[in-house]
Design a protein that fits this description.
Blueprint: E1 68-70, E2 74-77, H1 80-91, H2 96-110, E3 120-126, E4 132-137, H3 173-184, H4 189-202, E5 204-205, H5 208-216, H6 218-221, H7 225-231, E6 243-244, H8 247-259, H9 262-265, H10 267-280, H11 286-291, E7 295-297, E8 300-304, E9 307-311, H12 318-330, H13 342-362, H14 373-376, H15 379-386, E10 410-416, E11 422-428, E12 486-489, E13 495-499, H16 507-519, H17 525-530, E14 534-535, E15 543-545, H18 552-560, E16 565-567, E17 576-580, E18 586-590, E19 597-600
Parallel strand pairs: 15-16
Antiparallel strand pairs: 1-18, 2-10, 2-19, 3-4, 3-11, 4-7, 5-6, 8-9, 9-12, 10-11, 12-13, 13-17, 14-15, 17-18
Length: 601
């Protein structure tokens, strides 16, 4: 299959029947998980999943897990209820954009740590007719925002960009979903919100992931009475097995269903947001809400070894920065170095180091900042950077940094429909539960996206990114993002991979690794998603890797080469990928780090 060498078990002809499996599962023998509908299933041995590589013994997963499979459509998200909402729309005759809208609103109900109507995000798609789109529904700075608004009298950065009302930017998610529906949707708008409204009004059974998320955020959520009243009934996270209802959120969704985006940016919902801002010292006004618009942009397209990688342009830094990394490593035979060998990791890290230095200095909102995108993505520029890489020794990040120095919750979903429309959406509140501020009477959380601006050049934000003037705060400006929703087209012109992840500043490097795993190393989709990940963002000058993700010998060799390494806390991302096989079968891989859900039919 083109440049990728896959190791398959025998693939027999697949029946055109529904196939519903949740996430990637272990290849151990046993019956498949129960489906939502009593339908026939494909034998697991008919699915390509055997891995050409092995993971370190210390890693939490084994390679070679089985993907979900479907002949007609596939939805992969972080939550089974949200994936089921998207699948419901596909089965009702909706296309992938319709399903994406349904998933977005469902996640606002069942995944409040990141799913949202009070945040923003990006959509990248390649439609069946080869239309390639990038939709920017990123949040904006309120009209009263100012460059130094998060500095105290001594000029030091406060935490007001992270916690509380002042941290919120003008939300974009509802406007983005309406813009997508107006241009590419097929089913009626109210039909797409129906699953989310049911989940909010009638409630859903609390599973471990919901309980654990709310327990994790309990201390911060409990600080604000309106927030605690919604998410901590009785002062604690809803217990597992209980039914969690959100009547205020249901009312808001019903208003949006009946009135479209106007029902959010005007009327009683807008009044409620403005009142909440005034109550807590925030800046968003009704005028800010009325002025918000989602923006259609030209996607970033990168040619990598004959494959076309489509991703998001600024104000997301994802497409440009990932494109630079790919261009830098393309001059070498990365695949021949061996997956996760010290040499391959060294080369990838050196590409990351150089690309992030450019990201932090040049990139920002294209409506406010001129950026040399063509030069940054030119192969000649990448080759000049590649020539500075010593294959045996680590570089020093200070050599590439141009930002003066002083002494991660998002979610992603991937969808493909029967016609071949492929949609990748990454959406966020920024930090887990955003600003922790619930709009009273409306039942939804507001983002803390203002922290993604440069509060002060040279001072790290919550994700450790050291950024410059290009991303400084300005009224109406969109803050720089790392979100990297991505669609990959193979050399024959066929859509082959849809992917994306949360993870703050690690998003870009995670998706680079997913793309490289697929093209350079031929990893099956579940193995690629389950594989341990590493990250470097120029500053701080350290390779961070997941606990148990690198074997001691590899770590030792990289240290001998001059790299500093550190095992990170928690996980790197929550990747949701779809691989489309040559026979058209859709294989879904939801990240087992978060027990995600891949549903196909």
């Amino acid at each position: 299959m083109n440049t990728v060498k896959w190791t398959f078990r025998s693939v027999l002809p697949l029946l055109a029947v529904s196939v519903l499996w949740a996430a990637c599962s272990s290849p151990a023998p046993g019956p498949p998980p129960p489906s939502i509908d009593p339908v026939a299933r494909v034998d697991p041995l008919e699915i390509p999943f055997a891995s050409p590589v092995e993971f370190p013994e210390s890693w939490r997963f084994t390679a070679g897990a089985e993907p979900a499979a479907g002949r007609r459509g596939m939805v992969v998200s972080t939550d089974s209820l949200a994936s089921a909402a998207g699948l419901e729309i596909l089965k009702a005759g909706g296309n992938a954009v319709d399903a994406a809208i349904a998933v977005q609103f469902a996640l606002a109900v069942v995944h409040p740590v990141a799913g949202n109507i009070g945040g923003g995000g990006f959509m990248v798609a390649r439609l069946a007719d080869d239309t390639r789109i990038a939709l920017d529904f990123r949040e904006e700075a309120p009209g009263a925002a100012s460059k130094d608004m998060y500095l105290d009298d001594a000029g030091d950065v406060t935490d007001a960009s992270w916690v509380g009302h002042l941290a919120a930017g003008v939300p974009g998610s509802v406007a983005g979903m309406e813009a997508a529906h107006e241009r590419y949707g097929t089913l009626p708008w109210d039909r797409l919100l129906a699953p989310a409204i049911r989940l909010a009004r009638d409630g859903f059974v609390v599973e471990s992931r919901h309980h654990d998320d709310l327990s994790w955020g309990r201390e911060s959520l409990s600080r604000l009475p309106a927030t605690a009243a919604v998410f901590l009934p009785g002062g604690k996270a809803p217990p597992k097995g209980s039914t969690f209802r959100q009547p205020d959120l249901a009312r808001t969704l019903e208003t949006i269903s009946a009135q479209g985006a106007q029902g959010f940016y005007d009327g009683w919902v807008a009044d409620s947001i403005a009142a909440e801002m005034k109550r807590g010292g925030g800046l968003i006004t009704k005028q800010d809400l009325a002025a918000y618009r989602a923006v259609w942009r030209e996607p970033i397209e990168i040619d990598y070894r004959g494959w076309t990688v489509i991703s998001m342009p600024p104000p997301s830094s994802g497409g440009v920065t990932m494109g630079q990394i790919l261009n830098i490593v393309e001059s070498s035979e990365l695949g021949s170095l061996g997956w996760h060998s010290p040499e391959a990791i060294h080369l990838a890290v050196e590409g990351m180091r150089r690309a992030y230095a450019d990201r932090n200095f040049y990139l920002g909102d294209p409506d406010y900042v001129e950026m040399p995108i063509d030069r940054l993505l030119s192969q000649s520029y990448a080759d000049s950077l590649a020539e500075t890489i010593d294959p045996d020794h680590a570089s020093r990040s200070e050599e590439f940094n141009r930002v003066p120095l002083e002494s991660t919750q998002t979610t992603h979903f991937s969808i493909i429909d029967e016609a071949g429309n492929a949609v990748a959406v990454t959406t966020t509140l920024n930090g887990g539960f955003g600003s922790y501020v619930v709009v009273r009477g409306a039942g939804f959380l507001l983002n803390n996206e203002m922290d993604d601006f440069t509060s002060k050049p040279g001072v790290p934000n919550a994700y450790g990114l050291v950024q410059g003037e290009a991303n400084a705060i300005s009224p109406g400006k969109r803050m720089l993002s790392a979100m990297t929703p991505t669609v990959v087209i193979n050399p024959a012109g066929r859509t082959e991979l849809i992917t994306g992840t949360p993870g703050g500043s690690t998003i870009i490097t995670s998706i680079f690794q997913i793309v490289s795993n697929h093209i350079d190393f031929g990893l099956p989709v579940c193995t690629s998603v389950d594989a341990p990940r590493f990250h470097h963002q120029n500053l701080p000058d350290v390779i961070r890797y997941e606990v148990g993700g690198l074997d001691p010998g590899t770590v030792g060799t990289l240290r001998e080469m001059g790299h500093e390494l550190s095992e990170r806390d928690g996980i790197s991302g929550d990747v949701e990928s779809i691989w489309i096989a040559p026979d058209g079968t859709r294989y879904g891989a939801a990240d087992r780090r978060r027990d995600g859900s891949a549903l196909g039919y």
